[in-house]
Model the fold of this input.
Amino acid sequence: MAVELSILRMNLEHERKRLIEELEELDDNSDKDHQSASSFNKTGESADAATNLERRLALASHKRINLAAIDRALKKIDAGTYGMCEDCGQPIDPVRLEALPHTINCLVCSSAKTTCAIDKVGL
Done:
């Protein structure tokens, strides 16, 4: 897994860099939307700007969560604990790690959490 681990690390670092660049761009655009939303020029334009600002803030939040997960995965690689499920301690399937390299749970534990969440909302 040493060669695969180096490839996964490289992919995580590339994704981290991409997310940081996208967050910087979103922050720049959010500042512009915030200024437009707070100006009282035209009500329609102000509402559009406010909607765009809300959308960008939600997207930025999602990207920050992904960035934190990637940082966590990189720390786990450094610590030698990468690829182990945080709930059950079993190895995470390499195919799952390849598809979702910042995952912290095996498929069984992840599915159990999803089922629990669905049960809580009554679906």
In short: The chain has two domains: 1-82, 84-123.
